[in-house]
Write a structure and sequence with these properties.
Helices cover 57% and strands 3% of the residues. By secondary structure, the protein is an all-alpha fold. It has one domain. The chain has a two-stranded parallel ribbon with strand order 1-2. The C terminus is likely disordered.
Length: 143
């Protein structure tokens, strides 16, 4: 069961008024990635949204944690799963899984199993331009 205090903290901690535009850009990009069934690395996502400067990956991961909490509150699959580490064999960084566990999204399953399940859920949520649900899995498109 998710701790409501953790979700509230994640929804408010990482996002200040100056971050709101960045979070909006991030969410737009995650929606585009989901629509395409595409995964990206943290660095690629930072480049896609035009984020530069020191600690840009750190800022990005904070905003991704915010999207995890938002998606959980909306009862949808976490779009942050579309962002993976280039050093972890196609999986997100450990902070993604820690956050998902803290929010009650992830049980005792392995990170690989959880990530695969989430990618399948994201694929089932995806809607094509004609308004029909696209049932093809994200992982199918990567092979």
């Amino acid at each position: 069961m998710a701790d409501p205090a953790i979700a509230e903290t994640l929804l408010t901690t990482h996002e200040t008024s100056s971050d709101e535009a960045w979070v909006a850009r991030l969410i737009d990009q995650l929606d585009q990635l989901q629509a395409k069934g595409q995964l990206v690395t943290y660095l690629e996502l930072a480049d896609l949204i035009g984020l530069s400067g020191p600690q840009r990956i750190h800022r990005l991961t904070g905003w991704l944690e915010t999207t995890l909490a938002r998606d959980q509150a909306l009862k949808r699959a976490p779009r942050a799963a579309l962002v993976v580490s280039r050093f972890r064999g196609g999986l997100p960084a450990p902070g993604f899984f820690e956050c998902a566990q803290a929010l009650g999204m992830m049980g005792a399953e392995s990170p690989q199993t959880f990530h695969g399940r989430v990618l399948d859920e994201l694929a089932h949520e995806r809607v094509d331009t004609r308004g029909h649900r696209d049932q093809k899995g994200v992982r199918d498109e990567l092979e």
